[in-house]
Design goal:
16% strand, Rossmann fold, oxidoreductase, alpha/beta, NAD(P)-bd_dom_sf, 46% helix, 252 residues, SDR family oxidoreductase, globular, Sc_DH/Rdtase_CS, KR_dom
Length: 252
């Protein structure tokens, strides 16, 4: 018996056409789940579907979606339901960096980061949970947060605040939606190599590696099993948790 067979499950992964989202989508497809990628970049969406489709297991489809736009979220959900019939799991992963030092903070810099990283998760959950509640079979909400939400990091106050908002949303959603059989958890990721981290000052990566007790970055392969566990029934009794996944960084 395969304890982590996700055949028959449907998962949405926002921002799933690259980075952490695509890594988690790989695990879901390999375990048999059908995956709907919601992303803004048509070329990356297409490439992600081709890669996921070659893995065997579940099916993958991509739908254009900017989580800044409520109407696009609604349209992506409608397209997902038209293709797969339901949504069992939602990975609210889409986000941006754009950290600023406080003396350099502008209203636009603050609003842009908060809008995508926090409001985007809330609006995605708004539409997905309405479907889950109407369907009446529960569901799972997983958000990509960051270790910066509970730690101090230079020149990143707006980013840290946006991810702290995701943590608060996660706890509130878990409490509110428990009666519907819907769980909500957040991943406080540490340092993983992504397009976002590639644009950072190389000295930051060197400093971060020295600070991580395991002395290495996170590996994308490990995210596959993480996603499968939290999408599976074996995580049904876990809700409202903001889990650091960081090689021990948050305790260093």
């Amino acid at each position: 018996m395969n304890l982590f067979d996700l055949s028959g499950k449907v998962a949405v992964v926002t921002g799933g056409n690259g980075g952490l989202g695509l890594a988690m989508a790989r695990g879901l497809v390999k375990a048999g789940a059908d995956v709907a990628i919601w992303g803004r970049n048509a070329d990356k969406n297409r490439a992600a579907c081709e890669e996921l489709g070659a893995l065997g297991g579940g099916q993958a489809a991509a739908f254009s979606c900017d989580v800044l736009e409520d109407s696009q979220i609604a349209a992506a959900l409608a397209a997902t339901l038209d293709r797969f019939g339901k949504v069992d799991v939602c990975f609210a992963n889409a986000g941006v960096g754009g950290g600023r030092a406080l003396p350099e903070m502008t209203p636009q810099a603050w609003d842009d980061v908060m809008a995508i990283n926090a409001r985007g998760v809330a609006l995605t959950y708004r539409h997905v949970t309405a479907h889950m509640i109407e369907r009446g079979e529960g569901g799972k909400l997983l958000a990509t947060s960051s270790g910066q939400s509970i730690m101090g990091v230079n020149r990143s106050s707006n980013y840290a605040a946006s991810k702290a908002a995701v943590n608060g949303l996660t706890r509130g959603a878990a409490f509110e939606l428990a009666r519907h059989g819907i769980t909500a958890n957040a991943f406080l990721f540490g340092f993983y190599e992504t397009d976002m981290t590639e644009s950072a000052d190389p000295r930051f990566a060197e400093w971060m590696t020295k600070r991580i007790p395991l002395r290495r970055f996170g590996d994308h392969e490990g995210l596959e099993g993480l996603a499968v566990f939290f999408a599976s029934p074996h995580s049904d009794y876990i809700t409202g948790q903001c889990l650091p996944i960081d090689g021990g960084l948050s305790i260093s």
